[in-house]
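Hi W.,

Here's what went into the run:
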Amino acid sequence: MGAVSSSLMEFLTAGLRPRTPLGHAIRAALLVKLVVIILMRVFLFSGDDRPVVDARMIESRLLGDAPSRLPRLPTAND
Amino acid sequence: MMDLDPTGLARLQFAATALYHFLFVPLTLGLSFLLAIMESVYVMTGRRIWRDMTQFWGKLFAINFAMGVATGITMEFQFGTNWAYYSHYVGDVFGAPLAIEGLMAFFLESTFVGLFFFGWDRMSRVGHLVVTWLVAIGSNLSALWILIANGWMQNPVGSVFNSDTMRMELTSFWDLIFNPVAQSKFVHTVSAGYVTGCMFVIAISSWYLLRGRHIALARRSFTVAAAFGLASALSVVVLGDESGYVVTQHQKMKLAALEAMWRTEPAPAGFTLFAIPDTQARENHLEVKVPWALGLIATRSLSTVLPGIDDLVDEAKQQIRSGLIAYDALERLKLSRSDEAARASLGAHAVDLGHALLLKRYVEDPRSADDALIAKAAGDTVPDVLTMFWAFRIMVGLGFFFIAFFAFAFWLASIRDFGRHWFLKLAVWVWWTPWLAAELGWIVAEYGRQPWAIAGILPTFLASSSLSVAQVLFSLTGFVLFYSTLLVVDIVLMRRYILMGPAAALGGAGHSAARPAPAAE
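Here's what came out:
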């Protein structure tokens, strides 16, 4: 388990102290992605921008707002 | 074709991000197994070069993994931003496999990837080999959960519509997992990933062989990729055939569209090898057919009739009429939740409710639709035949090309002939073809699902959020710019480390890989 935990520890700290040029490049790419994801979280999912959909909204979307006034359609049992 | 309204743009955005994401996924799926095979040989033989090979291809795997990771998250974000109605309507069913995939990808897969790269000099040989196999199995399991979610969109089993909550609810997790569409898609998709990984390795190895660089590594890599590639290419075609058989059972319109089969033919139907489908006249020009072939492939019988597009449209009209009864019952339940007659009527016709909803595109209350509108809505159930027809044929053609390509590569490797320059050049030139085939496969699967977000349940135009064109266009532009940048970085890094070769890429560790191979090798 020592080998596993020390490997994972190095994996986790590699982001802080990359030791190779490739490590630096990967860290930069992952950091940019993290920033973009955080920005998306902030700007796309915050407050009024969040599209709220609940059962009432679905009902309104599928059936319309006004109560039905049309005559009932015949069913197979009629 | 796709309309550039908010729904069309949301579709375009999802398609763009999905197709981009799937540039990375197949290489991860394929390379991970090749790494496991190479390291297995290292553990069994103890020869250093196999470790160098695993580490070198592992480095390219790392670049691909790092650039690809999290590019799929944006699709999950889009379910919230662009597909809010979809998410609420089917989230109880669709969300479960998606959440499991997220947990698997971020905790299980990433943990093993970390152990793979940082455990080389800490863990025992066998211990590290187990980790490498778990990387391969973990990445494939991630794909399984995504394809279970996607399979449910194609064939929504194990769920019912609840009129009280106005959403689909899961009734059988077992049915969801063992959905035949999901299972056949999974094995077909991962096999396509293996082909991609093998082509990637063969192309780069061939490039090294052409330049006389890293011969020992290139020959061994070529051999492993040729053998695994041949098995994978055969699997792709065989499992693709199984996938087609399942489509015949569950998505008849998709099959008819990709065959441009306008009218029902006597069984067994012929397979159209070539044609120019005329979507206006609903007929094919310059048609070249192989008698019986489609009937045998799609139904595995001589007597089962495959319905043509026109008959399926007529069937859709009946389903719309049945769905209207369900719609009416739903309206009555809206007025009185205790209306048991309405509840019974809804139960009897709920399976066709989605078809009635197709009318919402043209009329506020579907019950007011006349025969002409019903015919129009039924016509909407036909996907874009021209796109389907050619995307499918190019994909299948590439599938057969891969079998021939890898069979020849395997034969060359088995006689240790790595000097056929024309083949090495061909391998370098066609490196991109598995990606094209995979992307076309997704186009066939998802374009062929239209006009449905969930087949037969929820039309796409009702699934999208209430957004403006400007809002979707803004995020679409952002995604395209960001993803294009990532793709450029990915290609630059890959190119740099491929040009460096194993010795330099491994920081001087790969001495044996860099040495010329002895004549006996």
